[in-house]
Amino acid sequence: MQPLLTLLQINDSMFPIGSFTHSYGLESYVSQGIVKDTPSAKVYAQNMLRYSIHYNDAAFLQMTWKLLEGKKSALHFQRLDELISALKSPLEIRLASRKLAIRFLKLTKELYPVTRCSNYLSKIQQGNMQGHYPVAFALYAHASGISLKDALTAFYYNTLNGIVTNCAKLIPIGQGDAQKILFDLQATINELVQKQEMLDDSLVGLCCIGQDIRCMQHEKQYSRLYIS
Amino acid sequence: MLKSTIRINAESEGEHTLLKDSFHSAPYKVIHYGTRHLHKHLELIMMSASPGIMDEDEISITVDVHEKAHLKLFTQSFSKLHPMKKGAVQKTAVNVKKHGVFKYIPHPVTPFSNAKFKTVNEIHLDKSATLIWGDIIASGRVYSGESFQFTSIHSITKIFRDKKLVLLDNQLLEPAWQPVSSILFYEDYTHQATLIFVSPYARELKSELDEILIGQYEQITFGFTECAADAIMLRAMGNEGTLLHDWLTTMGQLCWEFTMHKSQDVLTVVDPEKQSEALPPVISDSEIRKTTDAIQKNAAYIGVDGKKTIIKFRKKKAIEATCAKAEV
User: Fold this and answer.
1) What does pTM read for this prediction?
2) What's the chief localization of this chain (chain A) (predicted)?
3) Interface ipTM above 0.85
4) Chain segment B222-236, per-residue pLDDT in tens
């Protein structure tokens, strides 16, 4: 198994786990005219990486990694899964994380079976765990010999890629502008990856109030293209 | 610099809830809110002789709501956080036992410039217990032009149900490095509010709220969700603390009424022969009317028909349609 090629494959936006069906509240922002053009899309993308992803999904990935490196017992993973569920308040965000995790685990099982991944999947299916995508991603990436730094960088990149692709579809902004945002935020991603390890435990799961509200409002949005 | 302790112990005796073994140290005081003979449940108000929370203050609040006890805890006024260097800490521990009900929606927290405050709430609930919990954070003394001048507010709320962590709300506001008025944060608003309802009846209330809260207001923006199993979270942003507090209190009261109504069905001993008469249908008409009435009152207060036009329902027709449905 080639670590780099595996990372490129599982991190591809076309990797069929359904990530393109989620906007994580962006659809509400766009429909309410808050994210409306390239400059506001860039602010949204930057804020998402810096103030949401860094403290949430990227932190969960890192925490899973630490548990794996420390060869921690199943109980620790169970607790982490519970912690993530308790932090993800908006229902659609919690369900998105679960759906992506299940599809990711099912698909990667066919590519290269990993015991921890299969155990996680069966616990989710039995209802003992909720299931969260960053945990699933970390479990598989770790087993594939990918480094934490690469896994994190790729994870940030793919999250940002999802954001700009959704912006291009929803607002819409030009494909060129979307790619420009993706390129311009390289330094931000690097900085966040470097800082990830130093993140204090008390800051894990920080919530952005506006983001939470827009994600909740999405549940009631009359016409919508995305699941979340 | 003050170390203060408040301890409240609510126990049920027959149909009533009584205050037992309470304790408070200066500058705080806990007394009955109005006459204690007016309700079967217990109503307490927490008062303070201090103008607010000062640097290095440490406040510890413990609330025990015992089996079948019902407690509403009120605050007297806005909680003012004065300018600080080291910061103040507040710790609240709540324990609600079997069939206990606890409601606490304090006045907004108003941080002055350089205020530094950490508040940690740890709440343990029995699976049959109900929690109605609110919190509102202002950006500062907005009308004096003091908005987001504070150093830090860190609010952590952990809710356990049958010892399992079900909800963790971790909010850190540090305007020095966060774009607090930008997308994801307060946008152009100055206040944020959260209401949490954890109860065996939360799912049923959620489907009621899905029918009731169909509009958006002009001066506040809000969303609500099933934040965990048997739990609802409602979050809002607005520009006025009093308005948000009134609205949150109304919504909290709705949660309270709903819980009381539902728990009566559980706690009343039903004669098996009359069981079919005694048990109400899943959602009765009167229940729907009761909830929509409460919202109607709320809407009237915030000025749909009155002289004060603070908030208007954008979808007034839709609200009327819901009410008409309830009257059928």
Assistant:
1) 0.88
2) cytoplasm
3) yes
4) 999 999 999 999 999
